[in-house]
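User: Here's a structure from my thesis project, written as structure tokens. My advisor, Dr. K., wants to see whether a designed sequence matches the one we expressed. Can you design one independently, without my sequence as a hint?
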């Protein structure tokens, strides 16, 4: 059966994605109305879903005779616009040449496209095999101004996911100013939902908060220039009766790396409008006649199997259909990053010695972090001067690479391409490349300015610097950092009426540069970073399959950071490293085993100087590197299940299961010692209930059914300790 069906007579669209249905219809007034999103339904007469009930007489309506509940403000709109009757948060608001914001979009027609189209200049999910997706384009038109909007829905045969975006076309003959153009909206029928949001800061990303929906607007946004540490661009709505493993859960993730807004607006009739897109605050876009504007992609997932079911869908969507590159489904090299071990104090001799030691320990990739370029001895200078610091690297990156490669290790390198230090050769030469408002003070953050990424000359300069270093240094990995917020947003090249475009043009420029690099260097593994996880978003996964989850390498802090991140992002995208104790961010000390077990994600490494460690510690590292290599594929391609809720259970527990269900790795981490109470048992998920599993470490034998329906008994744990259970199908 087709994934997208249109009932011509009733004018109903029925989209099926995995085992979910999304239903909408065209009503008598030619508005596109939302009907249903949830568990899969058989085709039927769904017209009743489009009906609205009587509401307050205050609502404005084009035909008073029909009844005031025929106002779009009372309807569940698929793509609500400002201008006629809808007075909630809308998906589109613009200013016409006459200064008004009048817009009235009515159904015009539809097209069904095979597969999943890309989005021009933007990250987008894609098929890995033909036939996995179908795309519906619904065309809406304001026949007065000739503004046309195509609303897109891509549905997946094997996933409960829908990917949405919109394209606004100005078919009129005067320019219009877009003031708010969101990627998608879902009007839920009531307000009986719990909303999960996330908050955080540097070294404390993606902490989870939940609240019962209340009347009015609630949600998240960023105006920092990036998706940000503070709030990541995702929201989750779940029915109060649902939990981690059962019940209706709806997730929305915006695949965008810049300023965004993600809100739920609960109206006076108790309907809940979820709406996500580019942050309208500080944004305008001038659309000339004949031009189009494409929004970023919004990824939606539905689960009737609780929050974990939603996470599994997003994990597969982002790992298999958003991330790209040769590493997306393979074990990543075991790396050693120099940052916490050496900070700015690197030089060729030290790097060579670390490389030799690292090779003995089974490390495959040595990443030289900050400090290798320009006059960079601290964070005061040199961003933009992407040539080797001759005092530290007398033979250049080339010379360093030869020594590292001779030791049997690949070389990776750190860049912070989008930044420029005031004290740099580049700033002397090109002060006009700085993101700023002419004639006004330019703020510094970490002693640096931001480059104007909307400029082609800036993108070209950065491309040449990065490409040249990759070639000269035989570089196999690039860490792409970004370490401050935007402040004064302006571009010298744009006219006054286009300055509101700079924030979005910055992101488009960044995407264009990354696209060029990943296309020309397909074998290089790129990792994104922004002071840790300040730009950990689905958009960047399109260019870089992994991200530095947090600058906080403390294993206990990482438990909640990785828990929150795992709600929507796959484990394959989460970088985690073992660092020394006391930890450099929290000054906490925990055992090596705890640090190791927590760092076992899809992208594992060490962040220390092995030359400063004892023989015993180095032996632990070698054993870890060997162990990780045998499970690396599981961490990338396995299914991930959260077994405990770190906020309620005072502990954390999770498991990976191989796609074949023949192996599972369960980890339990304590945060507080619990002397009293019964032995802990966690029900396991994703196993073969008819199979028998042996716990390789303890020799115990369990049936899959017992593990899933009764649970795996846990060893007692001391304070901040971990235990792992390796369960192999017999
Ligand atoms: C940021 C990153 C760190 C490290 C430093 C280098 O803070 O998140 O991992 O690369 O920059 O200056």
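Assistant: Designed independently from the structure alone:
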């Amino acid at each position: 059966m087709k994934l997208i069906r249109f009932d011509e007579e009733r004018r109903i669209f029925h989209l099926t994605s995995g085992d979910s249905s999304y239903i909408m219809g065209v009503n008598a007034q030619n508005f596109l109305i939302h009907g249903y999103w949830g568990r899969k339904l058989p085709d039927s007469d769904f017209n009743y879903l489009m009906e609205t009930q009587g509401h307050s007489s205050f609502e404005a309506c084009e035909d008073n005779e029909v009844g005031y509940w025929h106002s779009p403000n009372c309807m569940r709109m698929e793509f609500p616009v400002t201008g006629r009757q809808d007075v909630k948060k809308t998906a589109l608001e613009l200013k016409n040449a006459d200064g008004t914001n009048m817009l009235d979009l009515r159904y015009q027609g539809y097209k069904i496209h095979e597969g999943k189209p890309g989005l021009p200049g933007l990250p987008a999910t894609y098929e890995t095999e033909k036939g996995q997706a179908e795309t519906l384009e619904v065309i809406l038109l304001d026949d007065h101004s000739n503004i046309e909007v195509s609303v897109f829905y891509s549905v997946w045969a094997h996933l409960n996911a829908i990917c949405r975006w919109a394209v606004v076309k100005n078919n009129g003959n005067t320019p219009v100013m877009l003031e708010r153009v969101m990627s998608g909206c879902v009007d839920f029928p009531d307000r009986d939902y719990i909303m999960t949001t996330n908050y955080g800061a540097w070294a404390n990303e993606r902490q989870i908060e939940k609240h019962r929906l209340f009347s009015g607007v609630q949600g998240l946004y960023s105006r920092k220039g990036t998706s940000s540490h503070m709030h990541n661009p995702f929201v989750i709505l779940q029915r109060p009766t649902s939990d981690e493993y059962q019940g209706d859960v709806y997730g929305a993730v915006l695949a965008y790396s810049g300023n965004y807004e993600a809100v739920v607006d609960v109206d006076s009739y108790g309907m809940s409008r979820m709406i996500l897109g580019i942050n309208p605050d500080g944004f305008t876009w001038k659309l000339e006649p004949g031009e189009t504007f494409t929004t970023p992609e919004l990824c939606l997932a539905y689960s009737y199997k609780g929050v974990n079911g939603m996470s599994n869908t997003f994990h597969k969507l982002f790992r298999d259909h958003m991330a790209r590159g040769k590493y997306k489904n393979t074990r990543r090299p075991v790396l050693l990053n120099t940052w916490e071990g050496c900070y700015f104090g690197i030089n060729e001799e030290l790097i060579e010695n670390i490389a030799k030691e690292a090779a003995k320990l089974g490390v495959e990739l040595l990443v030289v972090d900050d400090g290798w370029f320009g006059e960079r001895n601290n964070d005061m200078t040199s961003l933009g001067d992407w040539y080797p610091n001759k005092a530290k690297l007398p033979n250049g990156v080339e010379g360093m690479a030869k020594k590292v490669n001779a030791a049997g290790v690949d070389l990776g390198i750190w860049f912070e391409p989008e930044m420029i230090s005031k004290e740099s050769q580049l700033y002397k030469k090109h002060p006009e490349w700085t993101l700023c408002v002419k004639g006004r003070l330019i703020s510094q953050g970490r002693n640096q300015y931001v480059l104007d990424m909307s400029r082609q000359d800036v993108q070209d300069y950065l491309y040449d610097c990065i490409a040249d270093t990759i070639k000269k240094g035989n570089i196999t990995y690039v860490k792409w950092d970004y370490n401050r917020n935007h402040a004064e947003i302006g571009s010298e090249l744009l006219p006054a009426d286009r300055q509101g475009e700079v924030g979005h043009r910055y992101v488009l420029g960044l995407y264009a540069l990354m696209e060029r690099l990943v296309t020309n260097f397909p074998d290089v593994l790129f990792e994104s970073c922004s002071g840790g996880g300040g730009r950990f978003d689905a958009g960047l996964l399109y260019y870089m399959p992994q991200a530095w989850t947090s600058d906080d390498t403390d294993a206990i802090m990482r438990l909640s950071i990785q828990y929150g991140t795992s709600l929507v992002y796959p484990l394959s995208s989460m970088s985690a490293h073992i660092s020394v104790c006391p930890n450099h961010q929290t000054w906490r000390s925990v055992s090596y085993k705890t640090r190791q077990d927590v760092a076992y994600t899809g992208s594992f490494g060490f962040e220390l100087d092995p030359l400063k460690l004892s023989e015993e510690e180095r032996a632990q590292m070698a054993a870890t590197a060997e162990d990780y290599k045998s499970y690396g594929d599981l961490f990338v391609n396995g299914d991930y299940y959260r077994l405990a809720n770190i906020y309620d259970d005072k502990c954390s527990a999770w498991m990976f299961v191989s796609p074949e269900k023949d192996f599972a790795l369960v980890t339990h981490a304590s945060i507080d010692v619990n002397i009293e109470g019964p032995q802990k048992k966690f029900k396991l998920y994703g196993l073969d209930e008819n199979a028998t599993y042996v716990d390789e470490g303890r020799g115990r034998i369990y049936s899959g059914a017992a593990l899933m329906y009764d649970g795996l008994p846990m060893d007692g744990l001391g304070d901040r300790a971990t235990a792992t259970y390796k369960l192999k199908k017999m």
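When you compare it with your expressed construct, this may help: The pocket of alpha-D-galactopyranose is lined by residues 339, 369-370, 414, 481, 483, 529, 531-532, 548, 551 (CB under 6 Å).
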